[in-house]
Amino acid sequence: MPKPTIEQLRQQLAGSVITPADADYDEARAVYNAMIDRRPAAIARVASAGDVAIAIRYAREAGLPVAVRGGGHSVPGYGTIDDGIVIDLSDMRGVSVDPGARTATAQGGATWGDYNAATHEHGLASTGGIISTTGVAGLTLGGGIGYLTRGMGLACDNLIGAEVVTADGEIVTASADENADLLWALKGGSGNFGVVTSLTFRVRELSDVYGGPMFFGLDDAADVLRWFRDFIEEAPEAFGGFPAWQIAPPLEFIPEDRHGEPCLAFVSCWAGPLDEGEAVVNQVKQVASPVAEHVGPMPYPALNGAFDGLVPAGMQHYWKAAYVRELTDEAIAAHLEHGPKVPVVNSTMHLYPINGAAQRIGPDEAAFGHRDATFAPVIAGMWPDPAQNEANIAWVKDYYAAIAPHSEEGAYVNFASDDDQDRVRANYGDNYD
Predict the structure, then answer these.
(1) According to a count of CB atoms within 10 Å of the terminal CB, is the N or C end of the chain lower?
(2) How many angstroms separate the CA atoms of 297 and 274, rounded?
(3) pLDDT tens across 158-189, in order?
């Protein structure tokens, strides 16, 4: 039986098919991480779940591997593939909100910017990420850490249903009542169980938050980290901020003589009553005085997109991550040694708290592992110049090697790099099997 042709795929799809012969091929194959340079046999820019099923069946019959691209932010570049079919969901970005039912449904190519814009119109939200250009599907399927984790749980904890196209091209629904085992797997099991063409979330009332970044000098970094370790244990769950190493960018609110200086940033997000936010956020000022701050009430989507400009598409990326139960003095010392060496303004380390609501989900209630972790640090190496790859990758690796002895064996899968394959079982703990 002859194998199907690309032209036959073109004729069947409502969407479009892009091949190396097309003028827009190089643009279509590009992903967020510019280190990734792969050449698919074809990119199927799908328009529906039906298109996805057609593309999967085509790939099966043609004997071609498949990659799935949602937001395209996968650091290892899993949204593309050499000599295979990329199922590109980027034209499927619709988001619908049912305020009465308190649910929101996002198509598989939607970003958190799309999602937050739609839910914010109704004064609603659920946990998303830190960068608004990140895909809703990819972040959620890996777990979904964000500003609202402590109060609302992970993004996957709010996932109540999904439409999935399986590897045999069947379109199925996953919910508590139908294919419940598949829904369990989608909650942290990453993109391993099919192509997710829509996701339905439980949403809650949230319009404005109180927050933003403060910058502290390196002399105060140790005190701020120790304070944060103790504060976050008992902090109200409406607080979702984190410390981060950051070279001070040339922004108006930062004194000019501090531009280009490595600092410890403290990014705050208070999602409770606005009139309580200032008092909670300013507790850090009892420990140290910031050299700059840009903190106040703002719409939640504004905070979710506040750092987009630092990480545009087309940067070089290399990341390492961990889970931490207890931020020991020895761990803090490792952060203080390596964090101030952050090489460029785009690179950072974020120390996300994942206690609170996220820890109230039983360890076997979703595929996401390590419900006993208090923190999820990520060393995110991001820079524009490929000539700096060796030096900047070394910074990430050296930093990770220093914190690893003070961390759990596994790490958050959304922050993994391609050379972390030996950690996959540990990333899921007892849920792997």
Answers:
(1) N
(2) 7
(3) 999 999 999 999 999 999 999 999 999 999 99
